[in-house]
């Protein structure tokens, strides 16, 4: 659809809104490269300067990353996620683990109190998918399955604000998990989440919170060891 407006600023706002929708809808996934500037000009029917202005605005807001010689990539699905990604990317690993522990333990506690039977079935399915991904040795598949399970636990808390905040942090947490997963996905390195799901099923809020809190710190010593410079 060709966009048109007598005012350039209004036109740029329309293009920004349309490009943002491509990102938030998932059509342009995080990590993917968006169409080139000439391609966007053709698709949107606007001037090159308008496209450039819109892309730069979304890059400034943290949704896009312009990489000279490579292209422009999606790095976040919301402005808040973009801000948090920039803010926490070089943060102290212990602080990130503490944040993750706080959010996930609170969510698991609420999930144990509020989850529905339908959500329990979904958690069982996602847990099985996570176990299968680990057994396959496919690290990327495991990271995706693990992240999906945790997000489902948070969603089962029925706290929309907590769920939205956790989703905005999701891509950053996946980056940390990807680094934490051992190159050799062996039984001794496996992070069991079955006890957390069992506690949620039993309605044991304190045990669910305790199990969830522990997951964030499993690989932390290795990460801290890697940061030492002495």
From TrEMBL:
SUPFAM superfamilies: GntR ligand-binding domain-like (SSF48008), Winged helix' DNA-binding domain (SSF46785). Residues 9-77 form the HTH gntR-type domain. Keywords: DNA-binding, Transcription, Transcription regulation. It comes from the Bacteria. This is GntR family transcriptional regulator. It comes from Streptomyces violascens. The lineage of its organism: Bacteria, Bacillati, Actinomycetota, Actinomycetes, Kitasatosporales.
């Amino acid at each position: 659809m060709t966009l048109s407006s007598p005012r350039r600023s209004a036109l740029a706002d329309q293009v920004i809104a349309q490009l943002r929708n491509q990102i938030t809808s998932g059509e342009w996934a995080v990590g993917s490269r968006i169409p080139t500037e000439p391609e966007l000009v053709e698709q949107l029917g606007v001037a090159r300067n308008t496209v450039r202005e819109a892309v730069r605005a979304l890059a400034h807001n943290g949704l896009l990353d312009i990489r000279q010689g490579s292209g422009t990539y999606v790095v976040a699905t919301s402005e808040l996620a973009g801000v948090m990604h920039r803010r926490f990317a070089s943060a102290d690993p212990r602080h990130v683990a503490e944040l993750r522990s706080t959010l996930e333990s609170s969510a698991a506690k609420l999930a144990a109190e509020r989850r529905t039977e339908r959500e329990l079935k979904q958690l069982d399915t996602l847990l099985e998918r996570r176990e299968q991904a680990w057994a396959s040795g496919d690290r990327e598949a495991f990271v995706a399955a693990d992240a999906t399970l945790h997000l489902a636990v948070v969603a089962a808390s029925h706290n929309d604000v907590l769920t939205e905040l956790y989703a905005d942090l999701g891509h950053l947490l996946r980056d940390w998990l990807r680094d934490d997963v051992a190159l050799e996905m062996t039984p001794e390195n496996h992070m069991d989440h079955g006890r957390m799901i069992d506690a949620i099923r039993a309605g044991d809020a304190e045990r669910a919170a305790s199990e969830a809190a522990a997951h964030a710190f499993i690989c932390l010593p290795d990460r801290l060891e890697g940061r030492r410079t002495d």
